[in-house]
């Protein structure tokens, strides 16, 4: 056992080598701080990690890097991340989406990284609402606007103040909630404003080689700056005295100390390390949202099958349901992502066709199954999600998806908990967010998911912001 960390003191210990932890680590190491990142899992990346299965490389969850803006646009989340982490734009190798769609019964709205296209679509489909929609966009606060964080009212109610068509409200909420709402049914206006901007006013892009080069880039930077890492070894306990974390106990028995602890593990998950707030003590935990995702590898270029959209956010019912699933998977709404459909530079194409389908899923159901049953049920859920998506995607015109399929995989909320320790498989974490990252302990702060900035860009920004606020500018 490697005992070399035992007794060491650090300026900061960061719990988790996901996007927010790595970003915080780079920022602190850049300013000469002695930093240790402790990660429970054997691979970095957290919720956006990667793995290999039968020789094929899978990204855990990359659909899109949101908040994409072209070079030169000032005052954006992407620009701030690049500047603060000293990353050159070209290093991310981002390619823009071809175009995405919100698909509801009887109506479909196209959008891409040019917002005027979405505006035209709204005017076409909902002429009664276009003036209100434009007014809403004009009045939408920016992420840098402090007033935004004071408005914690309902996004549904706020939208109804501008938009006459209920159907349009449902269609706008669907992508925003799927890409970042921890709360069911509705989300607070602040979170909604951030998501609307990042999805519609900014846009989607993807690195050709997926999430790996981004993680490698972050790790290389962190290492080059002298940052230390301990992988495959979680923090098992935070020892507290006098309102401060005094000692950080690792799963291998080592114990280290730090001036500041930044945790990306989640609010309840972190407070459990202090011996507080078990899951059973927090009734709202049961409202946490779990998701399932299928991956299908195709022996075809999806656009040749007529599947030209990058991402489709769908609801099979007029009223969009976003709530803890009562069924193993809730096929009434979801996201279909086709990673091939980005404008990769030099006409490059992904070597294989990819189809990813995400829907809400029931954590209690999946976590209660014994191993053999779990695998059997996954096969059925895969089939249900895929058949449902085939009704939304353009018809295969006589071809069979089975004949085109080379390989498949699927994850459930149980997988998310197993590999990231997020309670109840909740990708978007706790319903309550600690916007300033503070906890009840003086030197313990949160970054990432439960600080409230979600997604890859949000998590990176959160790591940077929390490192600045609670260590560098203290
Ligand atoms: C399937 C899926 C698809 C997604 N798709 C996209 C997408 O297309 N675009 C996008 O922008 N976002 C996407 N996301 C969301 C995005 O991945 C997350 O919002 C973001 O990565 C969160 O980063 P984080 O650093 O806050 O947390 P995490 O990634 O959860 O990192 C926390 C880390 O802490 C570690 N940890 C927990 N407890 C301990 C402990 N006790 N000791 C040590 N380590 C611990 C965990 O293992 C984990 O690595 C997706 C997520 C999933 C799951």
Question: Which descriptor suits the 3D outline?
Answer: globular
Give the class-level CATH name of the largest domain. Answer: Alpha Beta
Largest sheet: number of strands, sense, barrel closure: 7 strands, mixed
Helix content: 25-40%
Helix- and strand-based class? Answer: alpha/beta
Number of E-type strands? 18
Our count of helices gives 15
* Average pLDDT level: 94
Small ligands present: flavin-adenine dinucleotide
Approximately how much beta-strand content do the residues carry?
A: 15-25%
Going by CATH, what is the homologous superfamily of the largest domain? FAD/NAD(P)-binding domain
Number of domains: 3
Q: Which CATH architecture of the largest domain is right?
A: 3-Layer(bba) Sandwich
pLDDT < 50 stretches: none
In angstroms, what separates the terminal alpha carbons? 36 Å
As a whole number of angstroms, the C-alpha radius of gyration is 22 Å
**CATH topology annotation of the largest domain:** FAD/NAD(P)-binding domain
Outline the structure in words:
The chain has 474 residues and is of the alpha/beta class. The protein has three domains: 9-64 and 211-283 and 429-472, FAD/NAD(P)-binding domain (3-Layer(bba) Sandwich); 116-195, no CATH class; 289-420, no CATH class. Helix content is 33%, strand content 22%. A hairpin with a 2-residue loop joins strand 10 and strand 11 (244-250). The structure holds flavin-adenine dinucleotide. Flavin-adenine dinucleotide is lined by residues 15-21, 38-41, 46-48, 60-66, 234-235, 264-265, 269, 273, 293, 416, 420-422, 427, 448-449, 454-457, 459.
